[in-house]
DNA sequence: TAGTGGTCTAGACCACCGT
DNA sequence: CGGTGGTCTAGACCACTAA
């Protein structure tokens, strides 16, 4: 009769811990503040460190915490909204929020990408490496696969430096007007090279945005961009191709 | 001199394990096949079970494996592409791929949702619960927040059954033509109730799609949909509002 | 060098599923 | 019931950062 939910102790410890910590973050901590270290937190809650870590991992996954080896655990700022639509493809460099070409190689594309490109399996394509920086922080690393056919004017300058050739490829790509673009988003884990660019450890959760750029009835290029899942909120502006506003830039815990 | 990368053994065991397993999955296993259990796999690779589990978790995160308590670990099929755009909002029920209204309550919206709605903090809104099913599998659970002002014709029938009222709200919502929709995607972990609908454990990784439906110059409704991150690939059709095709329905390991 | 988070171990018990 | 994955423990050592 009087038993108010005495049976529901089936809840795992780490899950309960996560809830408690989450509420503490809302009320007792400011953004950027550093938490006590894991060993102390574990002792304070009377659990093993592995259990405490399971809770912290969840909170980091949700973008509430940020952990750095050798430093500590800090309260993360709200996720930054990054626009993923309306031809950011048109900006090459410089601006405060833009893609920065890093380098360019020529090789055959991996199978999943090949399936989206209109090229032969053994035909090498340009692979441009770009980094997206927002508010001083790297948020995404991209591989842009561009068939030679899409940038016919690029034959002679093969021996130019990698970063310069990257810019050339992107510039040439601009000359093709885009007819549209297919896009998909899925969860992934950062490869070693992506992790390095994103200042994360390998295996960190990322949002993989695959974009197929359509031009002249075919696939002009394919982009595979990996966004930091802990710090990013991808925004899409479907409002009738109007100017995209910056919707939820400010959002706080409540 | 002749040392070819002898120093790079800094790679964590679980990371190397993941790579080895991933390649084994590509070559030696078919979709749906069950793997040896964790204790045996750990023994076979000469690592602790916790380490083996770390590798399996990564592979599950990437949608390569599916694990079910009491059953075992199976090879997952390729992720299913689910369209997240172009008014699926217009289908109420029945079709093979659609939202199924489950129930409806009336309460005040949580703070983040409130910030997107044009209502007072204490004003209750309709909260419609819907499930999205694709190919017989539940892929998403949604909470649709609808201010009373958006569905003015709905006053009298308060006492109808929950599922019926859910359908009514959605039907009424259709009468407003949509002017557009803002959408964002971020990583989250499944709440207990969502996890139940999605046939997953609480905390499972999900893609949270937040949509703001615009009508008559204001926000007509806000949808918060949580998609299973392990089985779903969200697709967006930006190709000039054309008919959306079903792009990567077939993709295999290579 | 001291302190942090990241990795790893070798166990134990529990919740769940099918038989 | 036996077997599976899920949770939890109490340690140990390592890689990294900053003072």
TrEMBL record, chains A, B:
Annotated protein name in UniProt: GntR family transcriptional regulator
Keywords: DNA-binding, Transcription, Transcription regulation
InterPro entries: Bact_HTH_transcr_reg, Chorismate_lyase_/UTRA_dom_sf, Tscrpt_reg_HTH_GntR, UTRA, WH-like_DNA-bd_sf, WH_DNA-bd_sf
Cross-referenced PROSITE patterns: HTH_GNTR
Pfam families found in the cross-reference section: GntR, UTRA
Residue ranges constituting the HTH gntR-type domain according to the UniProt record: 11-78
């Amino acid at each position: 009769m009087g038993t108010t939910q005495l049976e529901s102790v089936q809840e795992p410890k780490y899950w309960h811990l996560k809830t408690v910590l989450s509420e503490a973050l809302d009320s007792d901590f400011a953004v950027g503040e550093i938490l006590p270290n894991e060993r102390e937190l574990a002792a304070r809650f009377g659990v093993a460190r592995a259990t405490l870590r399971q809770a912290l991992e969840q909170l980091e996954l949700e973008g509430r915490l940020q952990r750095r080896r050798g430093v500590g655990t800090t309260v993360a700022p709200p996720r930054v909204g990054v626009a993923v639509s309306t031809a950011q493809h048109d900006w090459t460099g410089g601006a405060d929020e833009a893609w920065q070409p890093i380098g360019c190689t020529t090789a055959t594309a991996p199978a999943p990408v090949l399936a989206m490109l209109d090229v032969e399996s053994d035909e090498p394509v340009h692979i441009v490496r770009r980094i997206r920086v927002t508010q001083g922080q790297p948020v995404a690393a991209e591989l842009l696969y561009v068939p030679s056919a899409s940038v016919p004017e690029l034959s002679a300058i093969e021996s130019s430096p990698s970063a310069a050739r990257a810019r050339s490829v992107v510039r040439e790509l601009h000359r093709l007007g885009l007819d549209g673009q297919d896009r998909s988003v899925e969860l992934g884990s950062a490869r070693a090279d992506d992790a390095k660019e994103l200042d994360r450890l390998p295996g960190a959760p990322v949002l993989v945005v695959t974009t197929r750029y359509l031009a002249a009835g075919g696939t002009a290029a394919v982009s595979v961009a990996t966004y930091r899942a802990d710090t990013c909120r991808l925004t899409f502006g479907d409002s009738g191709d109007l100017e995209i506003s910056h919707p939820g830039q400010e959002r706080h815990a409540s």
